Amino acid sequence: MGKFKLNNNVAESATTLGNVETMLGDTYATAKKLYDGIEAMKWEGESRNHFHAMMGIILQYHKELDEVVTDIKKSMEDLHDAAENYDTYYAIKKLKEIE
To answer: Which superkingdom heads the taxonomic lineage of this protein's source (predicted)?
Structure first.
Protein backbone atom coordinates (compact mmCIF):
# COMPACT_ATOMS: atom_id res chain seq x y z
CA MET A 1 0.00 0.00 0.00
CA GLY A 2 1.48 3.35 -1.05
CA LYS A 3 1.59 6.58 0.87
CA PHE A 4 -1.51 8.75 0.56
CA LYS A 5 -0.64 12.10 -0.99
CA LEU A 6 -2.54 15.24 -1.87
CA ASN A 7 -1.26 17.69 -4.37
CA ASN A 8 -0.08 21.10 -3.19
CA ASN A 9 -3.37 22.73 -4.19
CA VAL A 10 -4.93 21.81 -0.84
CA ALA A 11 -2.31 23.70 1.19
CA GLU A 12 -2.34 26.59 -1.29
CA SER A 13 -6.14 26.75 -1.14
CA ALA A 14 -6.08 26.93 2.65
CA THR A 15 -3.56 29.80 2.45
CA THR A 16 -5.66 31.62 -0.15
CA LEU A 17 -8.76 31.17 1.99
CA GLY A 18 -6.85 32.64 4.92
CA ASN A 19 -6.15 35.72 2.80
CA VAL A 20 -9.81 35.94 1.79
CA GLU A 21 -10.78 35.64 5.44
CA THR A 22 -8.51 38.58 6.30
CA MET A 23 -9.89 40.72 3.47
CA LEU A 24 -13.45 39.93 4.52
CA GLY A 25 -12.63 41.03 8.05
CA ASP A 26 -11.20 44.30 6.77
CA THR A 27 -14.15 45.08 4.49
CA TYR A 28 -16.60 44.11 7.23
CA ALA A 29 -14.95 46.56 9.63
CA THR A 30 -15.16 49.33 7.02
CA ALA A 31 -18.80 48.58 6.25
CA LYS A 32 -19.63 48.46 9.97
CA LYS A 33 -18.07 51.90 10.52
CA LEU A 34 -20.09 53.29 7.64
CA TYR A 35 -23.28 51.63 8.90
CA ASP A 36 -22.74 52.93 12.43
CA GLY A 37 -21.87 56.39 11.08
CA ILE A 38 -25.22 56.72 9.34
CA GLU A 39 -26.85 57.18 12.75
CA ALA A 40 -24.62 60.18 13.53
CA MET A 41 -25.19 61.87 10.16
CA LYS A 42 -27.69 64.64 9.69
CA TRP A 43 -29.22 62.75 6.84
CA GLU A 44 -32.91 62.09 6.72
CA GLY A 45 -35.36 60.73 4.25
CA GLU A 46 -36.03 57.78 2.07
CA SER A 47 -32.55 57.62 0.52
CA ARG A 48 -30.99 57.36 4.00
CA ASN A 49 -33.37 54.56 4.93
CA HIS A 50 -32.61 52.68 1.70
CA PHE A 51 -28.87 53.11 2.17
CA HIS A 52 -29.08 51.99 5.80
CA ALA A 53 -31.05 48.89 4.77
CA MET A 54 -28.57 48.11 1.98
CA MET A 55 -25.62 48.39 4.37
CA GLY A 56 -27.43 46.05 6.78
CA ILE A 57 -27.72 43.46 4.02
CA ILE A 58 -24.04 43.89 3.12
CA LEU A 59 -23.03 43.35 6.76
CA GLN A 60 -25.17 40.23 6.99
CA TYR A 61 -23.68 38.92 3.72
CA HIS A 62 -20.14 39.54 4.97
CA LYS A 63 -20.81 37.76 8.24
CA GLU A 64 -22.30 34.70 6.53
CA LEU A 65 -19.58 34.59 3.88
CA ASP A 66 -16.89 34.84 6.55
CA GLU A 67 -18.41 31.89 8.40
CA VAL A 68 -18.45 29.80 5.22
CA VAL A 69 -14.87 30.70 4.30
CA THR A 70 -13.71 29.89 7.84
CA ASP A 71 -15.41 26.47 7.68
CA ILE A 72 -13.98 25.66 4.25
CA LYS A 73 -10.49 26.76 5.32
CA LYS A 74 -10.68 24.53 8.40
CA SER A 75 -11.82 21.61 6.24
CA MET A 76 -8.90 22.13 3.87
CA GLU A 77 -6.44 22.29 6.77
CA ASP A 78 -7.95 19.15 8.31
CA LEU A 79 -7.73 17.35 4.97
CA HIS A 80 -4.09 18.35 4.63
CA ASP A 81 -3.33 17.19 8.19
CA ALA A 82 -5.15 13.89 7.59
CA ALA A 83 -3.07 13.26 4.47
CA GLU A 84 0.13 14.08 6.34
CA ASN A 85 -0.77 11.67 9.16
CA TYR A 86 -2.36 9.01 6.97
CA ASP A 87 0.14 6.29 7.87
CA THR A 88 -0.36 6.81 11.61
CA TYR A 89 -4.08 5.98 11.65
CA TYR A 90 -4.88 2.71 13.39
CA ALA A 91 -7.08 1.39 10.55
CA ILE A 92 -4.36 2.08 7.96
CA LYS A 93 -1.75 0.31 10.08
CA LYS A 94 -4.05 -2.72 10.32
CA LEU A 95 -4.62 -2.69 6.54
CA LYS A 96 -0.89 -2.61 5.94
CA GLU A 97 -0.48 -5.64 8.19
CA ILE A 98 -2.81 -7.56 5.88
CA GLU A 99 -0.55 -7.02 2.89
So the answer is: Bacteria
